[in-house]
Design goal:
5-stranded antiparallel sheet; 2 domains; Rossmann fold; 456 residues; 20% strand
């Protein structure tokens, strides 16, 4: 499953915004397969909010009882009278459309057929389930009392616009309200193999910038009691205290063949650097990067942070993938907040390519503040979030080519919008000196030249 588009209505910092995403090209030998979208923008401009919107919208059918707690989803804006809600209520919605793989489409088609038969037991209508739209869509509506942070969700509405068109005959007999209250297709989806906890279908994972991992404190049973497994895969985006699953929680349970596959994938993620994983004392695991085995817990912050989310992702995939299927054939959505976090600039220059090349059938959507990361992607794969004067945020598609440009040039581009890459006081001093030089002050001109050359 891949997210194709998203509509945000009165959500977080967004008023009304429509966003489209790059999706992997299936069955193609094109070397420039685009399975990623990179989101750049200033702080508070909605980058993380977009990732969170995808995360809870994509698992919409199982959201109820998953452990997800909606807090401050709706914007703090005055409610218009035309919205026909109580004056002390804030309302909003996130609507997403998703492309399914061939196997997912087959399962979903069978589910639609069963849904049609269910309706026909109650309402005497005839229709062809093959004509039901194949595009899967979820809408999550939320509302919040002005004096409270806790939201009430009205979700599980699946493609209401397309569903209404297809089920016009049914709706004309029983009405829209009764239709959506009595024939909830999303409940059929939630109980199907598409959204089973250990199903490889409709896979979604998300990662917070902290990349928190606790070797000694990890307790799978406790996590399962508190959160549904599908929600666990994205919970870190919403709850910073949620730690990622350590290698010790799953690697040793794999077959030898699957362990070798995992090590091969990790080597690819590390730019071709060989890696060996072996069991270590005290619930740790040895990581050998070619210079001798070290416990995972004593690796440098950069390696530990990167391996924390990538091994968690691979572990989640190993939990659900059939034994006969390669991990690289897995489809799904991976959301990464600040993909450059904890990485040296040299690593930032290749991280997107390493990740997307290793998993060509996964759709990656990541945020970054790094011009080095932005300089490795094509403009059609970039979204720019911008904060407006009224406090709302907007999203636009990238237009400027960045590949081949220096970090300094990228920071001065429309993607980052800096007017100078020098420190504020120095930039102000240079501006002042140049103004004085224009008025004929030769000493100011010489000092400005020395500052520009870095010799002052």
């Amino acid at each position: 499953m891949y997210v194709r588009s998203l509509i945000l209505e009165n959500y977080k910092c967004f008023d009304i915004e429509a966003i489209s995403f790059s999706v992997p090209k299936r069955n193609t030998n094109d070397a420039s397969v685009n399975n990623y979208t990179l989101i750049v923008g200033d702080n508070r401009s909605g980058k993380s909010a977009i990732l969170k919107a995808i995360a809870f919208n994509a698992i919409c059918p199982i959201l109820s009882g998953s452990g997800f707690r909606p807090v401050f989803l709706s914007r703090n804006k005055a409610v218009k009278s035309s919205e026909r809600v109580d004056s002390d209520m804030l309302v909003g919605a996130v609507k997403g459309t998703y492309l399914l793989s061939e196997s997912e489409l087959d399962i979903e088609f069978a589910q639609r057929q069963a849904f049609v038969k269910h309706i026909q037991k109650v309402v005497d209508v005839k229709f062809d389930p093959a004509k039901i739209p194949s595009m899967l869509g979820f809408a999550v509506d939320f509302q919040r009392i002005v004096t409270s942070s806790q939201e009430k969700l009205n979700y599980f509405i699946v493609n209401p616009f397309e569903q209404i068109t297809f089920f016009e005959d049914v709706i004309s007999k029983i009405g829209v309200k009764d239709f959506f209250e009595n024939f909830r297709y999303e409940e059929h989806l939630a109980n199907s193999v598409l959204f089973g906890e250990f199903s490889p279908y409709c896979f979604v994972a998300g990662y917070h910038p902290s990349r928190r991992i606790e070797l000694a404190e990890w307790n799978a049973a406790a996590m399962n009691r508190q959160r549904g497994i599908r929600y666990q895969r994205v919970a870190g985006l919403f709850e910073e205290q949620v730690s990622l699953r350590p290698l010790t929680g799953w690697f040793q349970t794999l077959s030898k063949q699957r362990q070798q596959e995992v090590e091969h994938l990790l080597a690819s993620l590390l730019g071709g650097k060989p890696i060996r994983l072996t069991e270590a004392p005290q619930r740790d695991i040895y990581v050998d990067l070619g210079d001798g085995p070290l416990p995972f817990s004593v690796l440098s912050d950069g390696y530990r942070a990167f391996l924390a989310w990538t091994t968690d992702l691979i572990g989640q995939m190993c939990d659900v993938i059939p034994d006969t299927m390669a991990l690289t054939d897995m489809t799904g959505i991976v959301l990464i907040d600040e993909i450059d976090a904890h990485l040296h600039p040299k690593w930032q220059r290749r991280v997107v390519q390493d990740v997307t090349r290793t998993f060509p059938n996964l759709q990656f959507i990541a945020t970054t503040h790094s011009p080095l990361v932005a300089g490795t992607v094509h403009p059609e794969n970039v979204l720019v979030t911008e904060l407006q004067d009224d406090g709302t945020a907007t999203v636009r598609r990238g237009t400027e080519a960045l590949i081949g440009r220096s970090a300094n040039e990228i920071l001065l581009s429309s993607y980052f919008g800096l007017d100078s890459t020098r420190s504020g006081p120095v930039a102000e001093e240079i501006t002042k000196l140049l103004r004085q030089a224009t008025d004929g002050d030769q000493d100011a001109a010489l000092k400005a030249m020395r500052l520009l050359a870095g010799r002052e």
